[in-house]
């Protein structure tokens, strides 16, 4: 597995990098057969250290975890514990459904845009109804079943996931509702 261990305005020493590789490698190897790469980013927010970890699996699914602690090693250990819990749930769900994805998830390219937000001044009227594009990026839309999409959304900790439905071959959306349930949009 490839590791990318970085720090935002923090020096990440060799000892911490070795600790991350050993602990995260053991946790991921325990529940995921073929992890491809892992990215761990350390940063500091006020008096706390923040650790964000992302692990890409060969099936195309991605697991993410984030933790805040007052010590940098404790932040990583807490993040690694969350990652291990997510991967354990992922593996249990695959076993519960008696199916294992053998082929990697097919990805379709799409454009992603960031639009400028409205002004706080309620009295001013916008000159045009066309939104102002701040940034344009390339994104990937996975081809998944609805169950896999829900699992991917939960693994990523995302509030919404756009995916191509393998069964109906159309673009669908799953999202977390305010009442805690999962919503599914199938146009």
Automatic annotation (TrEMBL):
<dbReference type="Pfam" id="PF16321">
    <property type="entry name" value="Ribosom_S30AE_C"/>
</dbReference>
<comment type="subunit">
    <text>Associates exclusively with 100S ribosomes, which are dimers of 70S ribosomes.</text>
</comment>
<dbReference type="InterPro" id="IPR032528">
    <property type="entry name" value="Ribosom_S30AE_C"/>
</dbReference>
<protein>
    <recommendedName>
        <fullName>Ribosome hibernation promoting factor</fullName>
    </recommendedName>
</protein>
<dbReference type="InterPro" id="IPR034694">
    <property type="entry name" value="HPF_long/plastid"/>
</dbReference>
<keyword id="KW-0963">Cytoplasm</keyword>
<dbReference type="InterPro" id="IPR038416">
    <property type="entry name" value="Ribosom_S30AE_C_sf"/>
</dbReference>
<dbReference type="InterPro" id="IPR036567">
    <property type="entry name" value="RHF-like"/>
</dbReference>
<keyword id="KW-0810">Translation regulation</keyword>
<feature type="domain" description="Sigma 54 modulation/S30EA ribosomal protein C-terminal">
    <location>
        <begin position="130"/>
        <end position="183"/>
    </location>
</feature>
<comment type="similarity">
    <text>Belongs to the HPF/YfiA ribosome-associated protein family. Long HPF subfamily.</text>
</comment>
<dbReference type="GO" id="GO:0022627">
    <property type="term" value="C:cytosolic small ribosomal subunit"/>
</dbReference>
<dbReference type="GO" id="GO:0045900">
    <property type="term" value="P:negative regulation of translational elongation"/>
</dbReference>
<dbReference type="InterPro" id="IPR050574">
    <property type="entry name" value="HPF/YfiA_ribosome-assoc"/>
</dbReference>
<dbReference type="Pfam" id="PF02482">
    <property type="entry name" value="Ribosomal_S30AE"/>
</dbReference>
<dbReference type="InterPro" id="IPR003489">
    <property type="entry name" value="RHF/RaiA"/>
</dbReference>
<comment type="function">
    <text>Required for dimerization of active 70S ribosomes into 100S ribosomes in stationary phase; 100S ribosomes are translationally inactive and sometimes present during exponential growth.</text>
</comment>
<dbReference type="GO" id="GO:0043024">
    <property type="term" value="F:ribosomal small subunit binding"/>
</dbReference>
<comment type="subunit">
    <text>Interacts with 100S ribosomes.</text>
</comment>
């Amino acid at each position: 597995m490839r590791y990318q261990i970085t720090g935002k305005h923090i020096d990440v020493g060799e000892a911490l990098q070795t600790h991350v590789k050993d602990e995260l490698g053991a946790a991921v190897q325990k529940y995921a057969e073929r992890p491809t790469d892992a990215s761990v980013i350390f940063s500091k927010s006020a008096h706390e250290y923040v650790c964000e970890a992302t692990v890409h699996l060969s099936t195309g699914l991605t697991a993410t975890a984030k933790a805040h602690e007052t010590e940098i090693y404790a932040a990583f250990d807490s993040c690694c514990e969350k990652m291990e819990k997510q991967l354990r749930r992922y593996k249990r769900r695959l076993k519960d459904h008696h199916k294992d994805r053998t082929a990697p998830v097919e990805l379709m390219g799409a454009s992603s845009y960031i639009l400028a937000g409205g002004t706080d001044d309620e009295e001013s009227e916008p000159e045009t109804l066309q939104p102002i594009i701040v940034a344009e990026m390339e994104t990937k839309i996975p081809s998944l079943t609805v169950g896999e999409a829900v699992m991917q959304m939960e693994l990523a900790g995302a509030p919404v996931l756009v995916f191509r439905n393998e069964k109906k071959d159309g673009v669908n959306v799953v999202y977390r509702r305010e009442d805690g349930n999962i919503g599914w949009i199938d146009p």
